[in-house]
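Mods, move this if it's the wrong board.
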Amino acid sequence: MSCKNSSTHYQPAAFLLIGIPGLEEAQFWIAFPFCIMYVIAVVGNAIVLFIIKTEPSLHEPMYFFLAMLAITDLVLCTSTMPKMLSIFWLGSREIGFHACLTQMFFVHAFSSVESGVLMAMALDRYVAICYPLRHSSILSVPTIVTMGSLVLARGVLMMSPFSIIVHRLSFCQHCPISHSYCEHMAVVKLVCGDTTVSVIYGLFVAFMVVGFDVLIISVSYAMILQAVLRLPSTDARLKAFNTCACHLCIILAFYIPALFTFLNHRFGHSVPQHVHIIVANLYLLVPPMLNPIVYGVKTKQIRERIFHFFQKK
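Not the wrong board. Structure tokens:
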């Protein structure tokens, strides 16, 4: 199927997702670890949500944020993985034009939401460590609901223009998208004509969303580090360092692949395309898989509820 026409610009009825360019023969086997990570992400986040919902003692700020993160992870990986697995295992590469734009919206909107939730969780840790006696009053339920609503609204409002702008553009190149899902820049590369507005808006959003969130996270953890170093007990310092180190690993696992993907589209022309696509895929799989393990299983209260639940069985 081709949508190339040198004299007519139009919107194709569908695109073809290539998968991982250059590794088409290996995609069948690559899909197995991807599927395992997806299953772990879905089961892990579903368990965390179930435990938080059914255990009244976990209805606290930290766990509300963790529930938001779990919901975001489920949406983020489910918006891409079923179609990706159908490409790798069934060769079902075609995706409708509007379905592609919908997938693009969910990928970018909930990536923004995840970034915002990680920022909110960093603020929660800062308040819990630096102002423990005022934690419940500063981060009350209405405050948490407001923060969650603002993070969701930011993701929807700032990422919707991606799909709207692309919908208004004309396509004159071949339909195949050199990617496993409808990532914004991968689709924009098929546009015939000026894409300046789309590219500039992408840069603007990246700096406004990721730049702002990373700044707040960095400042929060810097102040947490100062507070931890002032703790009189060595055991207390080690415990706090261990907790913060785990959280920082999750944050880095989310932002480093995102930064790599963002920079590679603009400057990484020497990076093999299959490396770029694999990193972009892992970006949507690794954080959702690790989050319920690090934030859930390693959290004593949730771990105890999980053990108690299975013991009753």
